[in-house]
Write a structure and sequence with these properties.
Layout: E1 8-17, E2 24-31, E3 45-50, E4 54-59, E5 70-75, H1 79-85, E6 92-99, E7 112-118, H2 122-133, E8 144-150, H3 159-167, E9 172-177, E10 187-188, H4 191-198, E11 205-210, H5 213-225, E12 233-236, E13 252-253, E14 256-257, E15 264-266, H6 267-271
Helix pairs in contact: 4-5
Bound molecules: flavin-adenine dinucleotide and FE2/S2 (inorganic) cluster.
């Protein structure tokens, strides 16, 4: 019988620095044994582990439509994330997953999708955007709009890719930074303000909203004003986790386990647990 606590070996194929302050790094990882490869959906996460350091949860930034690798973007915080930042290409780490639920791509099939994000929370939303824009899926969805903000250009993740997306006509991309800096010719202002300015139509549209708590707090009323009901606004929650599979009780919010019932929740679900929003 498969031991659900046993990590699978993954080799680091490629690493690059995402942010100019070097706190964010992206890792492309490949399975050491092809037979261990698993299917996943946008929004799911994995537990990455380094022997002697520990294990921590990270959202999958690659899309299931991208074959042969798994991508994660890691913000350096303390023990595990620092150890990940010290990894070199070719080294082997452990992974458990895929864990948790995913963005409700079946429910919003045929609808318009608005993705709103700030900082490095774009990770699993990148997975979603790539998945939706894949030629195999794009025809199943209406307009796709991305509103993404960072404090300054150097803290924006996936910059090269975002520039490519700006040129595409199957996704409408709006990038913003907090304050004007030399050379920046896109939008300026906080994500809630920019969302209000762009005013995506709420008709037949769903929102996936991930970012720092302050961004969520001020964007939510804007979305409500635009007519999005809480049933059609989804977010991904982060909580401290241990087992990742609903056994240890470390990650609960009210009666829900973030690792099992989430991390993706609608605001209609979260409203039933008032202290969480
Ligand atoms: C579902 C999920 C997806 C995530 N996706 C990503 C991702 O894509 N990229 C990324 O960089 N990080 C992500 N995180 C957060 C990441 O798991 C933590 O930053 C990491 O566990 C910190 O480990 P550490 O050993 O470096 O620091 P620790 O020593 O464990 O913690 C350092 C500080 O971070 C806080 N912290 C630890 N874990 C969490 C957590 N899960 N949520 C909030 N605060 C925490 C602690 O309270 C402490 O203050 C995700 C978390 C969850 C639950
Ligand atoms: S992390 Fe153990 S129950 Fe969620």
């Amino acid at each position: 019988m498969k031991n659900v606590y046993m990590p699978i070996p993954l080799r680091v194929r490629k690493i690059w620095v995402e942010s100019d302050d070097k706190t964010l790094r992206t890792f492309d990882l490949e399975f050491v044994n092809e037979a261990d490869a698993f299917d996943y959906m946008p929004g799911q996460f994995c537990q990455l582990s380094i022997p002697g350091k520990g294990e921590a949860p990270f959202g999958i930034a690659s899309s299931p439509t991208e074959k042969g690798f798994l991508r994660f973007t890691v913000n350096r915080v303390r023990v595990v994330t620092t150890a990940l930042h010290y990894l070199e290409e070719g080294e082997v780490i452990g992974i458990r997953g895929p864990l948790g639920n995913y963005y409700p791509v079946e429910e919003f099939r045929g609808k318009n999708v608005v993705i709103v994000s700030g900082g490095f929370a774009l990770t699993t939303l990148r997975s979603l955007a790539v998945y939706l824009c894949d030629p195999a899926n794009r025809g199943d969805y209406g307009d796709i709009t991305l509103i993404y903000g960072a404090r300054r250009p150097g803290l924006m993740i996936y910059r090269d890719e975002l520039e490519e997306w700006e040129k595409k006509d199957d996704i409408s991309v709006h990038l913003t930074i907090d304050e004007q800096v030399k050379g920046w010719d896109k939008m300026v202002g906080f994500v809630p303000t920019v969302t209000k300015e762009i005013a995506p139509s709420s008709e037949d549209a769903w929102v996936m909203l991930c970012g720092p708590p302050i961004m969520i707090k001020y964007t939510l009323p804007v979305l409500t004003e635009l007519g999005f009901p809480p049933e059609r606004i989804y977010t991904s929650l982060e909580r401290r986790m241990k087992c990742g599979i609903g056994k240890c009780g470390r990650c609960n919010i009210g009666p829900k386990y973030v690792c099992l019932d989430g991390p993706v929740f609608s605001f209609a679900e979260l409203e039933k647990i008032p202290e969480e929003i």
